[in-house]
Design a protein that fits this description.
Layout lengths: L1 E3 L11 E3 L10 H17 L6 H13 L3 E3 L7 H12 L4 H8 L3 H4 L4 H8 L1 H14 L1 E3 L4 H14 L3 H16 L6 H21 L3 H15 L1 H10 L4 H21 L6 E6 L2 H10 L11 E6 L3 H14 L8 E2 L12 E2 L1
Antiparallel strand pairs: 1-4, 2-3, 5-6, 7-8
Bound molecules: manganese (II) ion.
Manganese (II) ion binds next to loops.
Length: 340
């Protein structure tokens, strides 16, 4: 079922509540303090670009959300500020950051699109309008087929890709603060995240964001399995990422000594949600799971590829039966590489 509805404040995923005004409402110094990290990252990512519109949008959003609070008890402005922080981290431009700051203003406050247009121009207004329209979309996806249709609809409705990015950043922050919402709502939002937004982020090429969304949804959807995985794993996600950062220079050094100049070395630690999917295939036997950490090394030639494998095996002896030569035997889609 898909329908367009007008949500009352507090009905949507944002969990807004209203309390008597005058309770810890940021403005002036408080606002400057909240905005400072966003501006710092923005200037680092996009040196020399104007920030006046971001400051103006922040002031407008803070005034509009005055007296509103998150379910967690924090002043509401902390949410659009966090969403602005996420899109800033993604390296997006000032109009997008400004729109992120105002993304809930039209739906939940007295601010309207004409006001945003007057203060910040038609681009910001149209992006905010796009996010507002997506927020009014309510769906209930019980089937995979339905989820695919909804994802296509979201893409079609968001005339501007910036709208989708703000919506995904909005969802990411709402997932991070999901524990403050009542349980039935947690479940519905986590389900939607897993079926709609995480795959959407993946298809848009944002694998890290997608993985983060899935991992945030996972404990709400499979609490028992989540606890079991956490207790069964010797090394948790963050520790595995740290381990990989320590190992990377070792790989670089060994390749350098062999005079191999890799085009790219990157790594990933397997996330809990994807580990769970894999465990289902292996009768929940965690000892059968490989690839909790992974390195990818891209080199120029086939010769260097085999040479690199040799260097890696000198550092870490291979597991019998776990080496795959997709260069000699490419996958049907043409994929060629060596796995160990
Ligand atoms: Mn929001």
């Amino acid at each position: 079922m898909v329908s367009l509805v007008r949500l009352a404040p507090g009905e949507g995923e944002d969990g807004v509540t209203t309390r008597p005004p005058g309770l810890g409402v940021p403005g002036g110094d408080d606002l400057a303090e909240l905005l400072e990290p966003v501006l710092r990252t923005f200037t680092a990512r996009r040196p020399g670009e104007e920030t006046a519109s971001i400051v103006r949008a922040a002031e407008m959003a803070a005034a509009a959300h005055e007296g509103q609070f998150r379910q967690s008890g924090e002043p509401y402005i902390t949410h659009p500020m966090a969403v602005a922080g996420i899109v800033t981290d993604l390296g997006l431009d000032a109009p997008t950051v400004a729109a992120a700051l105002l993304h809930d203003a039209v739906e939940d406050t007295q601010v309207d699109l004409e006001g945003i247009d007057r203060a910040l121009g038609p681009v910001v207004a149209s992006v905010v309008d796009g996010v507002t329209k997506l927020d009014r979309l309510q769906f209930d996806s019980k089937e995979e087929q339905q989820a695919a249709t909804i994802r296509k609809m979201l893409v079609a409705m968001a005339s501007d890709w910036r709208v989708l990015l703000i919506k995904l950043a909005d969802r990411l922050h709402n997932m991070k603060t999901l524990s403050a919402l009542p349980t039935p709502k947690q479940k519905r939002i986590a389900e939607e995240t897993m079926e709609i937004y995480a795959p959407l982020a993946y298809r848009l090429g944002m694998q890290r964001l997608s993985g983060e969304l899935e991992d945030l949804a996972f404990p709400y959807l499979y609490p028992t399995e989540y606890k079991w995985i956490i207790n069964s794993l010797k090394y948790h996600y963050d520790e595995r990422v740290k381990y990989l950062s320590r190992v990377k220079p070792m790989v670089e050094k060994a390749l350098d000594e062999a005079d191999i100049k890799p085009l790219l070395i990157d790594f990933r630690a397997k996330r809990y949600s994807s580990l769970y999917k894999k465990l289902l295939k292996y009768d929940m036997d965690i000892s059968k799971i490989y690839g909790l950490v992974a390195f990818r090394i891209i080199v120029d030639t086939v010769e260097e590829c085999y040479a690199t494998l040799g260097i890696i095996h000198k550092l870490w002896p291979p597991l019998p039966g776990r080496i795959k030569d997709y260069i000699a035997m490419p996958k049907p889609n043409g994929y060629r590489s060596l796995h160990t």
